[in-house]
Amino acid sequence: MSIQESGEMYLETIYILSKKNSFVRSIDVGEYMGYSKPSVSRAVGLLKNGGYITVDKEGYISLTDVGTEVAEKMYERHKLLTDLLIKLGVDEETATEDACRIEHHISDKSFEAIKKHINQF
Amino acid sequence: MSIQESGEMYLETIYILSKKNSFVRSIDVGEYMGYSKPSVSRAVGLLKNGGYITVDKEGYISLTDVGTEVAEKMYERHKLLTDLLIKLGVDEETATEDACRIEHHISDKSFEAIKKHINQF
DNA sequence: ATAATAAGTTAGCTTCGGCTAACTCTGAAA
DNA sequence: TTTCAGAGTTAGCCGAAGCTAACTTATTAT
User: Fold this and answer.
1) Protein-proximal nucleotides of chain C (any atom < 7 Å from a CB)
2) CATH code for B5-69?
3) Are A113 and A77 a contacting pair, CB within 8 Å?
4) What CATH fold (topology level) applies to the domain A71-119?
5) pLDDT 10s digit of each residue in chain A, 121 long?
6) What b-and-e string marks burial along A58-94, b requiring 16 or more CB atoms within 10 Å of the CB?
7) Would the N or C end of chain A have less CB density within 10 A of its end CB?
8) Measured at the alpha carbon of residue A13, what is the angle toward residues A12 and A17, in degrees to the nearest 5?
């Protein structure tokens, strides 16, 4: 099971919520993303199945190493792309939205290239 | 019917093929994009229906004004994003691939911001 | 004239990832 | 103790956009 764009978004959300709160449940993920409980339930099942997260008896979700890797990658891209767009004069809201979509569609190569040049923008 | 990412790709392809050849048929679009005839057939039907293209009795496809607008927008983004990535040191193939995906996910605002700063990269 | 090829369409399948409705289960409150 | 709220799951729908198989139709070649 290779991870899809949607899976990446869920993992990134779990990562963000984990940093903010002491625990993350499906319901929190759904609220944050604006998705229904069944949608989250299925996604969580798939991610668990794929080895990206674990869920304990309390329903608390944790990222595995692999899951953390994916989530951090997305999060790093998100931050850097947002930064870049803001530096270029884009308003914060638009920058965040665009970064959120672009982060899933850019190759490692391109991302590294942007990262290397970010300071000269 | 609002245009989807897939529709944008078809329109851009039709635009590119129109500049290269004297006519564009469904079969040409399919060959260029690597899609099957039925896939193209349906997409062409939807785009025709949506007022983005016209198809004459010969099966020759033309972009309407609206279709041209969308196609040119995508094409411009494609070129500019490819340029940008290449300037940042990304190899041409990767740059083209990434540009092709990003072009559908970036807002007008962000694109204009990149365009304004492209020369200083 | 017949047969073969090319282009397009139709029917119907698949996966992805949303959704609602309706169920279960658990823990807290009356 | 009974009831109710919150969280999660199950079943099943939907649209988007690929696909194959099999058909039609028109042109070209024998």
Assistant:
1) 6-12, 16-22
2) 1.10.10.10
3) no
4) Diphtheria Toxin Repressor; domain 2 (1.10.60)
5) 689 999 999 999 999 999 999 999 999 999 999 999 999 999 999 999 999 999 999 999 999 999 999 999 999 999 999 999 999 999 999 999 999 999 999 999 999 999 998 887 7
6) eeebebbeebbebbebbbebbebbbebbbebebeeeb
7) N
8) 120
- Strand C contact with A42 (CB < 7 A): yes
Round to whole Å and give the CA distance between B30 and B38: 9
Within 8 A of A114 by CB-CB distance, chain B residues are: 88
State which residue of chain B sits closest to A117, comparing Cα positions. Answer: B88
* Chain D: bases < 7 Å from a protein Cβ: 6-12, 16-22
